[in-house]
Amino acid sequence: MWSRLAVILCYLFATLLFGIAFRKKAKEGRIEFYLAGRNVSKLLLFFTMAATNFSAFTIFGFSGAGFRMGYSFYPVMGFGTGFMALSFFIIGQKILLLSKERGYLTPSDFIGDRYNSPFLKRLFSLVMVVFTLPYIAIQAIASGTSLESLFGLPYLAGAALVTLFIVAYVSLGGLRSIVWTDLIQGLMMVAFTTASFIIIVRGSGGFAASHLKIMNSFPEAFARPGINGPMVPGMWAGYMLLWFFADPMFPQLFQRFMIAKDQAALNTTMVLYPIITTFLFFLTVSIGVLGRGSFPGLDAGASDTIFPLLLSRYAGGILSTLLLTGSIAALMSTMDSQLLTLTSMITSDFFERKKKRILTEKLTIIILGLLGFSIAIRPPGTILDFINKTTFNGLAVLAPTVLGGLYWKKANRYGATASIFAGEAMVILYYLNTIKTPGIHPIIPILGAAGAVFIGVSILSDSGRDNSGIVFPVRRKALCWAPVFIVLFLLGNDFWAWGRTPVTLFGLPLWIWYFFLLGVLLSLVFKLFSRSMENDR
């Protein structure tokens, strides 16, 4: 145990060095501390955007979902998250321009500026903080469960250990330390997850052989709608919509739009995103499916530990611990950004403005870390179910307010406020099981209600004080591309191919290969689209 713990501690202390290295730089001001000087280059932006979005959910949640559902979970994540990168143009580029011109520091600064409402600005911040806390908690949960399952470190001790180091280097070095740790942690996540996948495949008896064995015992793992039928069309389409509207509303991702050096950096990230999601997300879901062959009796509650369980069986000792640092890197690269972004929002929106409030900011980071840890003390059944009902649905409700604020001059504070209250009320009712829509993902009626209220109230009211002067016109060339993206989205919902007996190629059903090609095609289309928009300036 002690030699394995030493490996983890060496890695954790290495991340702390980044905080120490950028400690002096972080003291230059709030723009530097929270936004890394608004000057993050293409390479760093891509890795920090990817690493901050790929969390414990990516490693532990995906592999657990793959174990419970089979491969049916892969396309809605691999293609769905890749397609979400279109929002880097629709939302990201506009927020980047406005943040540089008008000095935005936090996501809520745009809301306050566009709708000229301090109340709405604070409401927007409050929603982001409340619904991000469960996501912070799952990072602590994943660190605790993985260290416990791998070498017996008590669950709470593992969760506290990782949380402590994250709070420490974030407090010391600000966003610049996070960006550079994201580069290292992103590379580790990809390299170590790939190595883990190869080791698990070899230990399971080879890719094709192990898949044939699992197919004979669990044929639903290779078909849609998956084991026990969770991915019916209404759920599938709902997840596709959920990622598109929820992910850009993650406060840490939204704030990343403001740190890019220029629009070209955001375009590069958009183009590369489908490639990394198509590749990495397959590995983690496939690891979960492979777990069916090694741990067929594992119950749903323990399925999120399938990744470290497989590593412990097939990699052994020090090697399994070393490889696990890739998954620890994934959760750390998300939690650190969440802590910093929420701190910037809380100290800006809920405290009196002062030039120097370093102590308040550092205390806020510590308190947020403690709140996330306190939620993790009593972990939920599964990561997917927990954050699906809380974080994802709750943050997606904010999308109409942001999109309407960017592109619709009639949008006003009354419509935005009513939309948020109506949407979040539905999120709560779904969470309490007061509303149920079997076979339909809750996000479809939730977004429908939030969007309808936003449009209806905005049309029927006029505050007279909204700042419609910063609204962007919809470019004609962008509209010409709309049919292309609609077709791609429909191709990602290939219901015409459902219900057929899977035909396999090298152990995988052909529909998985279809989504590999679709991910590459999506990246190519993003490249052509971004080049077209650059030429149209």
Estimated structural class: mainly alpha
Strand order of the largest sheet: 1-2
CATH A-level architecture: Up-down Bundle
Work out the count of structural domains.
1
Q: Give the number of DSSP strands.
A: 2
How many helices? The count is 23
The share of residues in helices is: over 70%
What is the first-to-last residue Cα distance? 59 Å
* Global outline: globular
Strand fraction: under 5%
CATH topology: Sodium/glucose cotransporter
The helix-strand sequence is HHHHHHHHHHHHHHHHHHHHHHEEH
Mean pLDDT: 89
- Radius of gyration computed on alpha carbons: 22 Å
What are the low-pLDDT stretches, counting only 5+ consecutive residues below 50? Answer: none
At the first level of CATH, what is the class? Mainly Alpha
Q: CATH H level: which superfamily?
A: Sodium/glucose cotransporter
Main β sheet profile: 2 strands, antiparallel
Short description:
The protein is mostly helical and 537 residues long. Helix content is 75%, strand content 1%.
Question: How are the elements arranged and paired?
Answer:
Layout: H1 2-21, H2 23-26, H3 30-35, H4 42-53, H5 56-69, H6 73-84, H7 87-102, H8 107-115, H9 118-151, H10 155-203, H11 207-217, H12 233-246, H13 251-256, H14 263-294, H15 306-314, H16 317-349, H17 358-376, H18 383-396, H19 399-407, H20 413-431, H21 443-460, H22 476-491, E1 504-505, E2 508-509, H23 510-535
Antiparallel strand pairs: 1-2
